[in-house]
Each structure stands twice: as C-alpha cells, then as structure tokens.
Amino acid sequence: METFDPELAGGCLRISPEQGQWIVLKTRPRCEKKVQQHCQEQEVTVYLPLQKRTHRYGGRTRNFLTPLFPTYIFCAARPEQRTDLLNGRHVVRGLDVVDQAGLVRQLQTIERALQEEEIIEVMPFLKRGRTVIVRAGPMKGVEGIIERIKGRTRVVINVNMIQQAVAAEVDSADLSPA
Predict the structure, then answer these.
(1) Structural domain contains residue 20
(2) pLDDT digit string (tens) for 148-158?
(3) CA–CA separation, 25 vs 35, rounded Å?
(4) Could you say which DSSP state residue 3 is in?
(5) Per the domain annotation, does 121 fall within a domain?
(6) pLDDT tens digits, one per residue of 67-77
(7) Of 117, 146, 148, which Cα lies nearest the Cα of 129?
(8) CATH of the domain at 21
(9) Most buried in the list 37, 67, 152, 167, measured by CB within 10 Å?
(10) Region 85-110 average pLDDT
(11) Cβ–Cβ contacts within 10 Å for residue 9, how many?
C-alpha cells in the first residue's frame, strides 16, 4: 500500500503506469474511511484529506478526524482495480481526472495546508456567472448571479420581468450554489 506523500518526487507526486491513473470516488455519506480501508487492502494508492475537529458533549471534549471533503476520496488505480472500486457498495460513482498533474498539485497544496492547520472550513466553489443563494445576513434567501469575487462578492439580482438588475455586496461565506 502506498499513501500520499507530498514530498515525493521533489513535491510533485508521480504515479507510474503500473500504479494507474488518479480517480475521484464519490462515496455514500459517512463511508469515506471504509472506502479508504478497502483501497489499502487492495494495495491502491489512496488519499483521504482529514481535518481535526473538536466536539464538546456536556463536560467532555472529543477530537475527531473528519474528511475535509465529505463523500470524496482520491485514488490512483489500474483499470482492473478501478472496476473493483466502482462496484463497491460504498461507492456511488467515479469521476475521471483529465489533468492528473493538476490534481496532484492541488492535493499537495491541501496536504501542506492541513499540516500547517491553515484550512478552517471548506467553501462552495464559486465562480463568476454562477447562480447562488444567499444563506445568511440581511439578504438571506435571495438568488443571484456572481459578478465579481474579491473579499466581498458582488451578486447581481435579476428582475427578468422588467429586464433590470441590481447588484449587492455579499460576504462569500454567506453564499451557496443554487
């Protein structure tokens, strides 16, 4: 079994053809660690980014390692291993990775941030032109389109009937995809 090592190959993880290609597995809810264990048993290279969480129950405090991206796990598998993984009862589907090197770089960056405890929360992927819903604040419940992303995001709210629009500054943490 090979685990993800961000220092491997001078910071650029390389997967040899016998190890296979990277694939992102979408798992059933709360099954990420089961899929990770299955991958390790099948000697599939696997990466499951985990974040330390602290929960307080009454007077007790407990620490947990929870998946950074719930229901997603990253694997490098050969074709026959892929078939086995995709047919597993805890896997919903597999997402092919077109840019293998790009994914590895992103995973390395995430791993470094996790080691430095820099990641606080996962945010929805927001990009210009995407429809979003404001989930908090004075504009809660409003649907709009992202115009600009910098610190505070400008959301455009269209009024289709009169072909007019207004723009409002909203904290990007208050947005979620529509």
Answers:
(1) yes
(2) 655 566 676 66
(3) 9
(4) B
(5) no
(6) 988 999 999 99
(7) 146
(8) 3.30.70
(9) 67
(10) 89
(11) 11
- Distance CA(50)–CA(115), nearest Å, equals 10
Q: How many helices (H) and strands (E) does the chain have?
A: 4, 11
Pairing of strands 72-77, 91-96: unpaired
pLDDT at 121: 61
Name the pTM for this structure.
0.68
Domain that holds residue 153: 131-177
Maximum pairwise Cα distance, the chain: 61
Q: Which pair of tokens denotes residue 61?
A: 């405090």
**Residues 76 and 21 sit within 8 Å (Cβ to Cβ):** yes
Can you give the pLDDT at residue 148?
A: 66
Residue 142 in contact with residue 134, Cβ under 8 Å? Answer: yes
For residue 95, give both structure tokens. Answer: 């997402």
Q: How many Å apart are CA 103 and CA 19, to the nearest integer?
A: 16
**Model confidence pLDDT, tens digit, residues 117-132:** 766 566 666 677 888 8
